[in-house]
Write a structure and sequence with these properties.
alpha/beta; about 240 residues
Length: about 240
């Protein structure tokens, strides 16, 4: 099970939100690349990046910091937030991002995502509120069930699905294991859990299922409820 420490970028800074609300942003670093370097030193294989401003704007908004992260770190990077067209995908991959996360566009234009997955390293991000897919930086809730969206990409060639229970994200209230398993079983694709991870017990609950490919750790690291170095050793990064 791969452990992916996370950085959310807002106005060039590393922040964490609670339940996806921009006004809840808590700043943890004005130099995000230093955090990524720290994750790398602790043994992380992957780091999960989100351009929060980009998620709301529908276009890249933290390019300068993303470039700085890539220039200063050799860890693998996945990036999401506002990626809506092929030109942006190519721009990020040319920059050295290892794979891109497509979220809102996966709901609105699944055919586009499938076409991109055939050409590039693509991950689908499925973010849900009460089981229904949230889009546009979680500012809107669609009428599509998260499990139905997962099924739609079962044979699309995407590298993974990242599923986030928005109601738990940034709350340290515990990961939604059942939701993660529902997505994994619906899609048959390696599934990465996100949202609410609090401590080692969450990781153990996910690992024991043998159906979860990875887990994203955000606030639990920043608030010290998880020892990242220790869990990277325990789970061997997949």
């Amino acid at each position: 099970m791969t452990i992916l420490p996370a950085i959310d970028l807002k106005d060039g800074e590393a922040v964490r939100l609670t339940k996806g609300l921009m006004e809840s942003a808590k700043v943890y670093s004005s130099q995000p690349w230093e955090l990524v370097k720290r994750f790398e030193e602790l043994g992380a294989e992957w780091v999960h990046l989100v351009d929060l401003n980009g998620a709301f704007a529908g276009e890249p908004k933290n390019l300068e910091q993303i470039e700085k992260i890539r220039q200063n770190c050799s860890v693998k990077l996945e990036l999401g937030g506002g990626i809506r067209d092929e030109a942006t995908i190519k721009r990020y991959l040319d920059l050295g991002i290892d794979r891109v996360i497509l979220g809102s566009i996966a709901v609105k234009d699944p055919a586009f995502v499938k076409a991109m997955a055939a050409k590039y390293p693509v991950v689908v991000g499925i973010d849900a509120i009460d089981g229904y897919v949230a889009v546009e930086g979680w500012g809107e809730v669609s009428e599509m069930k998260a499990t139905d969206l997962a099924k739609a990409f079962a044979d699309a060639g995407v590298e993974a699905i990242i599923c986030t229970d928005v109601g738990r994200d940034g709350t340290l209230s515990g990961v939604n294991v059942d939701f993660t398993l529902d997505i994994a079983r619906a899609s048959g694709i390696p599934t990465i859990a996100s949202g609410g991870v609090r401590d080692d017990s969450d990781l153990a609950a996910l690992a024991v299922t043998d159906e979860v490919a990875g887990v994203i750790i955000g606030k639990a690291f920043y608030e010290g409820t998880i020892d990242l170095e220790e869990v990277l050793k325990v789970y061997g990064n997949g």
